[in-house]
Amino acid sequence: MSASAILRDASTLASYNVILQVTFRLLTFFLNAFILRRVSQEMLGIVNVSFPLGLLSSAGLAYIWIYCLHVPDPAGVPGYHIAVLLFALSVLLELLSEPLWVVAQAHLFIRLRVVADGVSMAAKCLLTAGLVTFLPHWGLWIFSLAQLLHTGLLSAVYVGYFLWYIGSPAASAANFPLSTWRSMFFCWKGKPLNTSLVPLIKSFLLQSFLKQILTEGEKYIMTFLNILNFADQGVYDVVNNLGSLVARFVFLPIEESFYIFFVKVLRRGADVAEQNQEDLQLVAKVLGSLLKIVQFIGLTILCFGFSYSHLALHLYGGNALSQGIGSTLMRCYSAYVLLLAINGISECFVFAVMKQQELQR
């Protein structure tokens, strides 16, 4: 596939992802505004606690959340123990779709991701709104069941699609690397592990761990060190999610889509002289344009964020959010968004072209 074709597909993928993210972020925006007036701050603080991926970490951390950390009053927050287990189960379900999501991204299956994310997110929002309205006494059961439905549908769509696609004439024409549906799952026959890829896997694992700590480390600190109670954590999480909306539904889809473009067009670890010069000029032009676009968006957020932070929080969550340090946090996020804009695209390009040894540093 030529560099121009890859750029066209990456741009299409980014456009669809932005539209999808904006649509469902707006949906969840109004849903959260609806929920904020019907559930307690303590429940919000508990729901926004993150669980790392993986079977061992899910089991270990579920044990910690149930038996080691502070457990809220069952009268005020019912269903805590079951909710922890259901969130852990939803993590395992999402892991089933993670490799298939990577394959879909690498092969630019644009419509698959749009359908999978759209169906699962719509179902989650509808179930959450319905349970909060008609069964508010279910407490944390509401959010845990909605999350379980979301991950279950997400995995089902990806698995179902690839079960249909693998072995089809379209897959054969596209030289799709998976020839049978058994190829989607781990198998001990033959050579189950490509040892030449182990160092690269270690590099990406370290990157993922570091990125997780940098992006959500404050949640772990607040939870394990008990710096904030659940009510304060709930307010912080709402402000944090609201402040990072632009980064999630605009910057993130652009970074994910054009990371694929950079990886496919440029040779990882090769010097400038060893690259195809026409492709290199195209990449330089695309990178410069992306940086200008995201900086323009970031500066726009910075200009209006300082003036309208208090009003936005008051309209979104009422006095519970607009009073106190909520407005100050939103103003800080306005400046932070500009830094995220520049860092995200730069990091996307650097990680796509760095040598394996450099990735491990």
TrEMBL record:
<comment type="pathway">
    <text>Protein modification; protein glycosylation.</text>
</comment>
<dbReference type="InterPro" id="IPR007594">
    <property type="entry name" value="RFT1"/>
</dbReference>
<keyword id="KW-0472">Membrane</keyword>
<dbReference type="GO" id="GO:0034203">
    <property type="term" value="P:glycolipid translocation"/>
</dbReference>
<feature type="transmembrane region" description="Helical">
    <location>
        <begin position="333"/>
        <end position="354"/>
    </location>
</feature>
<comment type="function">
    <text>Intramembrane glycolipid transporter that operates in the biosynthetic pathway of dolichol-linked oligosaccharides, the glycan precursors employed in protein asparagine (N)-glycosylation. The sequential addition of sugars to dolichol pyrophosphate produces dolichol-linked oligosaccharides containing fourteen sugars, including two GlcNAcs, nine mannoses and three glucoses. Once assembled, the oligosaccharide is transferred from the lipid to nascent proteins by oligosaccharyltransferases.</text>
</comment>
<dbReference type="Pfam" id="PF04506">
    <property type="entry name" value="Rft-1"/>
</dbReference>
<feature type="transmembrane region" description="Helical">
    <location>
        <begin position="43"/>
        <end position="67"/>
    </location>
</feature>
<feature type="transmembrane region" description="Helical">
    <location>
        <begin position="79"/>
        <end position="102"/>
    </location>
</feature>
<dbReference type="GO" id="GO:0005789">
    <property type="term" value="C:endoplasmic reticulum membrane"/>
</dbReference>
<keyword id="KW-0812">Transmembrane</keyword>
<feature type="transmembrane region" description="Helical">
    <location>
        <begin position="293"/>
        <end position="313"/>
    </location>
</feature>
<dbReference type="GO" id="GO:0006488">
    <property type="term" value="P:dolichol-linked oligosaccharide biosynthetic process"/>
</dbReference>
<protein>
    <recommendedName>
        <fullName>Protein RFT1 homolog</fullName>
    </recommendedName>
</protein>
<keyword id="KW-0256">Endoplasmic reticulum</keyword>
<feature type="transmembrane region" description="Helical">
    <location>
        <begin position="18"/>
        <end position="36"/>
    </location>
</feature>
<comment type="similarity">
    <text>Belongs to the RFT1 family.</text>
</comment>
<keyword id="KW-1133">Transmembrane helix</keyword>
